[in-house]
Design a protein that fits this description.
This is Anti-sigma factor antagonist. InterPro entries: MlaB-like_STAS (IPR058548), MlaB_ABC_Transporter (IPR052746), STAS_dom (IPR002645), STAS_dom_sf (IPR036513). Residues 1-102 form the STAS domain. The chain is α/β, with parallel strands linked by helices. The protein has one domain: 2-Layer Sandwich (Transcription Regulator spoIIAA), CATH 3.30.750. It has helices at residues 21-34, 51-66, 78-86, and strands at 2-6, 9-16, 39-49, 71-74, 94-95. The chain is globular, with a radius of gyration of 13 Å. The termini are far apart. The model has no long low-confidence stretch (mean pLDDT 91).
Length: 102
């Protein structure tokens, strides 16, 4: 898992699973604590995701909301969206809606 930062946006690259959850959790918490702003997690380069990774995102969302901030998922591909719905975490996590195209 590679993580790049673009302002308040964390861009994840690769497999987001049990092996990378600590790294992603630390990156999100660092952004929440080090900066007084919301965090966007860009998932466009995430190839696979598992339930452990989704639980990390849910915990980060809860922590952010207690501090008056948001963690928003952006560019979730079909595999990520499928896992969000199967895990029933789609209603817990804030997922940015895509604009409709003509």
């Amino acid at each position: 898992m590679d993580i790049t930062t673009e302002g308040a946006t964390l861009v994840l690259h690769g497999d987001f699973d049990v092996r990378s959850t600590g790294e992603v959790r630390n990156a999100i918490y660092e952004r929440l604590e080090g900066h007084d702003e919301d965090v966007v997690v860009d998932m466009s380069e995430v190839e696979t995701i598992d339930l452990t990774a989704l639980k990390v995102l849910a915990a980060a969302t809860h922590r952010a909301s207690r501090a008056g901030h948001h963690v928003t998922l952006r560019n979730c591909g079909p595999a990520v969206r499928r896992m969000l719905h199967l895990s029933r975490l789609a209603h817990v996590l804030e997922v940015e809606r895509r604009a409709a195209t003509a």
